[in-house]
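Hi U.,

Before I forget, here's the chain from the pilot set. I'm dumping it here mostly so it's searchable later in email.
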Amino acid sequence: MASQVLNHHKRLWLTAALALTTLWCGPLHAQGPTAFPQAKPLSLVVPYAPGGPTDAMARTLATAIRPVLGQTMVVENKAGAGANLGAEYVARAEADGYTLLFGTSAPLAINPYLYPRLNYDPARNFSPVIQIGYLPNVLVVHPSVPANNVRELIAYAKANKGRLSFASSGSGASSHLAGVMFNMQAGTDIQHIPYKGTGPALNDLLGGQVSMSFTDVLTALPHIQSGKLRVLGVTAIKRSRALPQVPTLDEQGLKDFDATVFFGIVVPSGTPQDVVTRLNAAFIQVVQQPEVKERLAKQGLEASPDYSPAQLAVYMRKEAAKWRDVIKASGATAD
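Structure:
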């Protein structure tokens, strides 16, 4: 009987000791916090459908970053509402660095002024990680337009009011806003013809139904090379590597004319700074790899001059202010 009592007390003592050990040290099986990003694969959200230039760039980066981070990065296409669907999804995601947005000028700078109702604010809901680069647009005209440079185009437009028109991929698209900016700076009144996408706009331009367009260099290049379109200028401050012989609109008298599409990676606001720093360092390592550089260049991308998160924050504010004024002047809206 005495031994049973002793064993009972011994069991009680051991149970109490184990409880105290758990309180002091935590569960016996617990480990320290898992170092980022080893907990799970990362998601790089593209707010556009598969197959476009944004999607292609994102997949290039996601593939190359795996050995750098030691973790898989999966590209998720969440298209819709002018890129707002994907942007809102990331804005509402957990701020742990595992969900990133591969955004463009539209969701990161333009849409807050274009859409009357928006469920996210780029400046408030995102923490910048890195600006990957930008895609220049080019001003191209149908060969029937009697102009070989921007000055001749402006002179012809002013002397022949109502004869010229420019095609865009839709109201509020960069190809539309570039035309609005052109009219504002050149003092012209070239008519805007919106289409449902770049393809239909390009088809009508090639057929001569419209006079000109501001489209990305990658789309325009084969038609320029075949002579089906004439390029008059690049809409970036610097010349395009794809068309180094073509002067910018700034060089041709439209000072500081800059209508490009930039590409930036952001995470939800509140993401720990050490995680942002880790992601930034990984992407810098990736974009400096020669094979990645070459692939992105073939996709039309011009590299960013500064890869810091601070630079992207400043650039987003600058682009937002510029397009706010252009949108206000144009009266463009989107639902």
